[in-house]
Design brief:
The complex is a heterodimer of chains A (109) and B (119).
Chain A: E1 3-5, E2 10-14, E3 19-21, E4 24-26, E5 32-38, E6 45-49, E7 60-61, E8 72-74, E9 83-90, E10 97-99, E11 103-108
Parallel strand pairs in A: 2-11
Antiparallel strand pairs in A: 1-4, 3-8, 5-6, 5-9, 7-8, 9-10, 9-11
Chain B: E1 4-7, E2 10-13, E3 19-25, E4 31-38, E5 42-51, E6 54-57, E7 64-66, E8 76-78, E9 87-94, H1 98-101, E10 109-110, E11 114-118
Parallel strand pairs in B: 2-11
Antiparallel strand pairs in B: 1-3, 3-8, 4-5, 4-9, 5-6, 7-8, 9-10, 9-11
The chains are: A mainly beta (109), B mainly beta (119).
Chain lengths: 109, 119
């Protein structure tokens, strides 16, 4: 079964501190993974995807198939990073995009 | 392009009432889907459609119906509202259908959400 787990509901850090939002997945095939972000009063939007190996707004995420993880990292958090972050998995069953429970990131000044 | 639009933004219903949440996209996207967002539960897929005339169930389909008569529209119907359906509902769309999405870089776009309260 496809499953995405984000173990932290809330992550609070100070500005300038490193941040890591955890994401673990369960999928028997070859997954494609994404991070979506929802800023206050805005709609959900794509932050990055693992196949692009990109860095967006200073965030990176590496797919670790051995640990079935796709953690989101940023070396120096900014206040504007405060938002809800969702990890998502795209399987090959109907093309569904399955989301984790979400982690609220709060960056304090 | 307006992107993905949803109406209404807010709705209050009484238990047992029915209503339809509207979703439309003007990007000629094949794939559309509905999610509900609940605290601690994340986004859960209700129903999805890979093209006009084709719909399928997601993780939490009970109590909801959908239809896809046109490419643009994907309404979500609550047949008999229950307090457990109090949630924020998001519609989403992307260009590719099932077969074409594997390995594609299509982005899934979301609507602004409908906040529904069932008393």
């Amino acid at each position: 079964a496809q499953r995405v787990t984000q173990p932290e509901k809330l992550l609070s850090v100070f500005k300038g501190a490193p941040v890591e939002l955890k994401c673990n997945y369960s999928y028997s095939g070859s997954p494609e993974l994404f991070w979506y972000v929802q800023y206050s009063r805005q709609r959900l939007q794509l932050l990055l995807r693992h196949i692009s190996r990109e860095s967006i707004k200073g965030f990176t995420a590496d797919l670790n198939k051995g640990e079935t993880s796709f953690h989101l990292k940023k070396p120096f958090a900014q206040e504007e990073d405060s938002a809800m972050y969702y990890c998502a998995l795209k399987g090959n069953q109907g093309g569904k995009l399955i989301f984790g429970q979400g982690t609220e990131l709060s960056v304090k000044p | 392009n307006a992107g993905v639009t949803q109406t209404p933004k807010f709705q209050v219903l009484k238990t047992g009432q029915s209503m339809t949440l509207q979703c439309a996209q003007d990007m000629n996207h094949e794939y559309m889907s509905w999610y509900r967002q609940d605290p601690g539960m994340g986004l859960r897929l209700i129903h999805y459609s890979v093209g006009a005339g084709i719909t399928d169930q997601g993780e939490v389909p009970n109590g909801y119906n959908v239809s896809r008569s046109t490419t643009e529209d994907f309404p979500l119907r609550l047949l008999s509202a229950a307090p457990s359906q109090t949630s924020v509902y998001f519609c989403a769309s992307r260009r590719s259908g099932v077969g074409a999405w594997r390995g594609s870089t299509d982005t899934q776009y979301f609507g602004p959400g409908t906040r529904l309260t069932v008393l």
